[in-house]
Amino acid sequence: KYCGVNYNTGELIVQERIDREGLCSKKVSCVMKQELVLENPLEIHRVNIHVQDINDNSPQFKEGSLKLEIHESADKGATFLLDEAHDADVGDNAVQGYSLQQNDYFKLNVKS
To answer: Where do the Cadherin domain residues begin and end (predicted)?
Structure first.
């Protein structure tokens, strides 16, 4: 389905975009098994193709934006919980952390 063979050179050719997340979801290892059939003489070769993840998905929050109401009487050090971001990518390509633009009023404490 995804790959074919150039019978003159023996090269494996990608024929269709491989969506790793659609194929293997959150699995760390993603292996696509293919059978290559050669004729005259008939030969069947089994090939395992290891699909590498690329950073092709942006982290997403459940809501498009987050609105917090912080009263002026809030104590220094008061904390407010943020939603978790979800990323379809895995490993180093998945969301690694959050950051907040530097300002004099807020700081972000990240707990994993």
So the answer is: 5-61
Tens digit of each residue's pLDDT (9 = 90 or more) over 92-106:
898 888 888 878 888
Residue 45: CATH number of its domain = 2.60.40.60
pTM of the predicted model over 0.90: no
Domain match, 22 and 73 both = no
Distance CA 110, CA 95 (A): 13
Question: Do 99 and 108 form a contact (C-beta atoms < 8 A)?
Answer: yes
In whole angstroms, how far apart are CA 39 and each of 2, 7, 44, 45, 106? Answer: 20, 10, 9, 11, 68
